[in-house]
Specification:
The chain has two domains: 437 residues, MFS general substrate transporter like domains (Growth Hormone, Chain: A, Up-down Bundle), CATH 1.20.1250.20; 50 residues. Helices cover 73% and strands 0% of the residues.
Length: 550
């Protein structure tokens, strides 16, 4: 196996300034960000469209779930494969191929005539998205060699990713007020055409040479590891423990062991385990996994609180859920400035502690709390998390050799996918357990469909709609209080995880990357691989989430 030597980060004190990016590079970044926004939106864009799709295509309940899930599953499963492929054939070439697939699949999805066709096309959309996401992240390495400019570019990339997932339901709701459901896919087309037209002129190619043979068996093992694990975790979050999802997780982990053993034997592995073992890379991967654990896990509760407890319509709740983006807009640039003056590990730790404070704030929510209380908590935790993730991603990508920047970005994003799935499952299970326990004694004797009432807030609302007014009010009041109590306990759990992530950042990453202020060493040609690269974050939940992560 090719060993990864310990490298000095590009942005350590005393290094020589790298060439500064000009208008062409920043224009190229802008062109790359638009399709990235749409790829992240596609995770959540069907939340409002699915009722219209159900009317038109009449899918079964299982097909409806796969229409929602297929995009995220394929996207998550192919990230590592596409990252490694881009390192070998060139990231610009992979971006162009991904844009072509994503554009064609978007048109096919808009005019799908059956549920089966739409499920298949959603898989193609996931394939295109997997080609675009790690490549756009890794291309920042080629465009920005100056550390300060690269930090700004990484911050922008992170903001676009998080904003895209949050914007999906809003854009979907607005389009569906005026057009048919296929319009939520057709909005992708202009951005992909723009990408295909401008990227060849604005973005340099980054192929590293043909010596790194693409290992097909490793690609198959990667898919066989990630897809069953993520599927099993999501099914656990949705239905609780069942034998089949548990077997999927076990089978995926077993294939993961085979995958790791194969990577150790290869001269040019798909995933560089030596790099993953370094604290400047492995530490940020773990930090981002924990960040997405809390972000996605709490997003499930947050949007349901707005809709089912405060009584807002789905579109109104989606619009209000954009407010926490103000915290991101404030905290991410502040963290970048602070990282120019002190060790990034301390700034990351501070971001996680800010997020913990936001979750503890949400733990105080009650059924009659004003809207601003929930929005403030969301803004605080979102700002803290994105600030920490931006710096973690920059540190990790900076620790990776330039020729493996795509693979490194894909590993980071795959860790975030896994973290989001775990957050939905574990925090969701905590909240569900609290709800069921509280409702066990709260449901009045003789209430019809009492099991549904005790299971979920949605079930309680459906049953209450068929009851007399007094009984319905009693059931809904008890259910909303039980749900809010479960939200509070889950928020405390998220705060504990964030405190642990902060401690990990300071204790494990202190001194790993210095500050971001000193300029970087001039970047070696992409084919040379002598200088490390920066890194990139991801924030969306590339799997199905029943709500909008911030």
């Amino acid at each position: 196996m090719e060993k990864t030597s310990e490298r000095t980060p590009e942005n350590t004190p005393g290094s020589t300034p790298g060439p500064r990016a000009g208008r062409k590079e920043w224009t190229a970044l802008g062109v790359l960000m638009l399709p990235l926004l749409l790829v992240s939106m596609d995770v959540s864009v069907l939340y409002f469209a699915i009722p219209y799709i159900s009317q038109d295509l009449e899918p079964s309940a299982t097909q409806q779930l796969w229409i929602l899930d297929m995009y995220g599953f394929v996207l998550a499963g192919l990230l590592i494969v596409m990252g490694a492929l881009g390192d070998r054939i060139g990231r610009r070439a992979l971006v162009l191929a991904g844009a072509a697939v994503f554009g064609v699949a978007s048109v096919a999805a808009a005019y799908a005539h059956s549920a089966e066709v739409l499920i298949g096309v959603r898989a193609l959309l996931g394939l295109g998205g997997a080609a675009l996401m790690p490549s756009t992240l890794a291309l920042i390495r080629s465009l920005f060699h100056d550390a300060k400019q690269r930090a700004k570019a990484v911050t922008l990339w992170t903001g676009v990713m998080t904003t895209g997932v949050s914007l999906g339901p809003v854009v979907s709701g607005l389009l569906l007020e005026h057009f048919w459901w296929g319009s939520v896919f057709l909005i992708n087309l202009p951005a992909m055409v723009l990408l295909l037209a401008l990227v060849p002129f604005l973005v340099p190619e980054t192929a590293t040479g043909a010596r790194d043979r693409f290992d097909v068996l490793s690609a198959v093992l990667s898919l066989g590891t990630l897809l069953p694990v993520i599927y099993g975790i999501k099914e656990w979050a949705r239905h609780g423990y069942e034998p089949l999802p548990a077997l999927c997780v076990i089978a995926g982990l077993a294939l993961g062991v085979v995958f790791v053993r194969r990577q150790k034997r290869l001269a040019h592995p798909m995933v560089d385990l030596g790099l993953l073992g370094r604290r400047a890379f492995g530490g940020p991967v773990l930090a981002n996994l924990l960040a997405m654990f809390a972000t996605v896990g709490m997003a499930v509760f947050f949007t349901q609180y707005l809709q089912s407890v405060l009584g807002q319509s789905p579109l109104t709740a989606a619009l209000w859920s954009l407010v926490p983006a103000a915290g991101v807009a404030l905290m991410a640039p502040t963290a970048a400035v602070l990282a120019q003056r002190t060790d990034r590990a301390y700034v990351m730790g501070g971001g996680f502690l800010v997020a913990a404070c936001g979750f503890l704030w949400l733990a105080q929510l009650r059924t009659d709390s004003p809207l601003w209380v929930a929005l403030t908590g969301g803004a605080v935790y979102a700002g803290g998390l994105v600030a920490a993730m931006t710096l973690a991603n920059e540190l990790a990508l900076g620790a990776a050799p330039p020729e493996r920047a795509g693979s490194a970005a894909a590993v980071l994003e795959s860790g975030q996918e896994l973290g989001g799935a775990l957050g939905m499952a574990i925090l969701g299970s905590v909240g569900a357990a609290v709800y069921s326990r509280d409702m066990a004694d709260a449901v009045p004797a003789g209430t019809p469909h009492a099991d549904a009432v005790r299971e979920t807030l949605g079930g309680a609302a459906a049953v209450a709609a068929e009851l007399p007014t007094a009984a319905a009010d009693a059931v809904l009041t008890a259910a909303r209080e039980a749900f809010t109590h479960g939200l509070g306990i889950a928020a405390v759990g998220a705060a504990v995880v964030m405190a642990g992530a902060g401690a990990l950042s300071v204790g494990f990453l202190r001194g790993a990357g210095g500050t971001t202020a000193p300029p970087s060493v001039p970047a070696a040609p992409e084919s040379g691989g002598a200088t490390p690269a920066p890194h990139l974050p991801a924030a969306g939940e590339p799997g199905r989430a029943p709500s909008v992560p911030y």
